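Entry 14. Structure prediction run on the chain below.
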Amino acid sequence: LFFYSAARFIFQSRQSYVSFTLTGLTAGLAGFLAHNIVSVNMRYPGCALFFWFALGISLGLIAEQTGGFGNSRYCKSSKLAKQTGLLFLIIVFVIITVYSIKTDIIAQVYFKKGLKAGSRGDWVKAITAYQKSIIFDQSFIRPYYKMAYAYDQIGQTDEAVLTYKDILNQVPYYARTRANLGILYFKKNNFDKALIYLKQAEDLNPYDIDVLISLSLIYAKQGQNREAVNCLERVLRLEPKHKFAYHTLKSIITQFKLDFTE
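Output returned:
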């Protein structure tokens, strides 16, 4: 209804600045909704705040220019229908709000139980708590991260990998997730897949020292010494006193000096 009303008003409005403003807001809201379908969940406070703020401004512009929604020719209805619709919206809003608050609180409770179990080194109990937290709030990302770490601590690397991939389904553009996946594949000696995820992490955040160090180690193991040196030099530009990068770089250059004097 909103997008229909906005489109009708944009095409019929004679005030260019209002039309342009509403066009931008409407296009932004449509893009925001489409992005949320495939990426960041709109239950995050920042996302929800932006969406409802932009929606409120847009509705205000439409109402101001058309004399209010009650008098708008796009929203004509009887008094009883309006009251019924308003009551229905209030009931739905209350139900959704109560359900969301309840599930969020329960998810937080289980998450904190997982943190306590993990701090004691009881990783199995921590994983169970994180799993229950996710059941109540599947958009709550932190339990996924903690659970992946817990799986890695007990040697269940495959489960850790699957957990990180679940995170990517919800937040595909987070560099740290891809970096962690690359490191796990590195531990499994699957250097090809490790390179794929680490390079993706590097593209998203080229200043991550851990990613550059991991890439240098893989390149060195594969005999790609020039690439390894390049990564280590970038680390030293970011952190000149990084001891591991300095000594590893010196070792590679000393061992393969003929390769670098051509």
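The chain has twelve helices and no strands.
Filed with the rest of this week's runs.
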